[in-house]
Amino acid sequence: MGSLQFNGSSVSGTFRALPSQSGSCLTAITAQDLAVTGTYDSGSMTLTLTIPIAGGTATLSAPIAAVGGTYNPGSWQIVGGSCATGQTPMRLAQFAPVTGTFTGTVSAIDLTTGMPVAGSGITLTATLTQSTAANADGQYPLTGTVTASGSCTSSYTLTNYVVSGGEVTPPPHTPFSFIGAADPSAALMVASFIPSSCPFSSYVGTLTRQ
User: Fold this and answer.
1) Are the C-beta atoms of residues 163 and 95 closer than 8 Å to each other?
2) pLDDT tens-digit readout, 178-190
3) Are 5 and 14 in contact (CB under 8 A)?
4) How many Å apart are CA 191 and CA 180, to the nearest integer?
5) Whole-angstrom Cα distance, residue 1 to residue 182?
6) Same domain (yes/no): 108, 63
7) Could you report the per-residue pLDDT of 51-100, keeping only the tens digit for each?
8) In what order do the strands lie in the sheet with 2-7?
9) CA-CA distances (angstroms) from residue 146 to 101, 120, 156, 171, 173?
């Protein structure tokens, strides 16, 4: 996931890649920033990206509408280096900013059954502002507040959060946690909420943009 800048048909930016538990595409155990270049064909609406990785070159290609909001089928391949691959299907999407207010009901999850705990629902409202400019890692700084009401009433300020590819991520070692995964149109967000003080330790649910 990352950020791209368009200048006519030319594209450049930064993707942040996460290491897997197997394979040799990334040498470090932490995420790595990868420089991205490419082209956008406005006629076919095809985005083609080139990314140097592990001594080889990855090529990603998929149609993508300028307004974004949907996943589009495409393919990717890595030629050369330590993790060369054949042509592989993939999906690519341009994600809308998550700036706005998202509200919904989140419920505590029984860790044994994985099911919501009856009667544990609380209302969660997240008011978010995504920066219009990405940082050096291709992530967008995020600010805002998260307010819980119901059996758990609290309000929290988001500090040092980032969003990329629709994923809202907290900084490490935060005293509470709000994690979100928005769809490409940013109309819905699946949220995980770990408050610092509430009847239950973790809540999960879907929030809708208002």
Assistant:
1) no
2) 999 999 999 999 9
3) no
4) 4
5) 13
6) no
7) 999 899 999 999 987 666 789 999 999 999 988 999 999 999 999 999 99
8) 2-7, 10-17, 32-41, 46-53, 56-63, 72-79, 88-92
9) 10, 18, 5, 15, 18
Residue 66 sits in which domain range?
2-92
User: CA–CA separation, 60 vs 78, rounded Å?
Assistant: 9
pTM: 0.89
Final residue belonging to a domain, choices 92, 113, 146: 92
CATH no. for residue 183?
A: 2.40.160
**Helix, strand, or coil (residue 77):** strand
Q: Give the CA radius of gyration of the chain.
A: 19
CB 187 within 8 A of CB 98: no
Same domain, 78 and 123: no
| Number of helical (H) and strand (E) elements in the chain, helices listed first | 0, 15
Q: How many residues does the chain have?
A: 210
Structure tokens at 152: 């758990």
Whole-Å CA distances, 5 to 39, 75, 114, 145 = 11, 21, 41, 28
How many other CB atoms are there within 10 angstroms of residue 185's CB atom?
Answer: 16
CB atoms within 10 A of CB 168: 25
**Residue 160 is encoded by which pair of tokens?**
């040092």
What total number of domains does the chain contain? 2
Q: Check whether residue 53 and residue 119 sit in a common domain.
A: no
Alpha carbons 56 and 36: distance in angstroms, whole number = 13
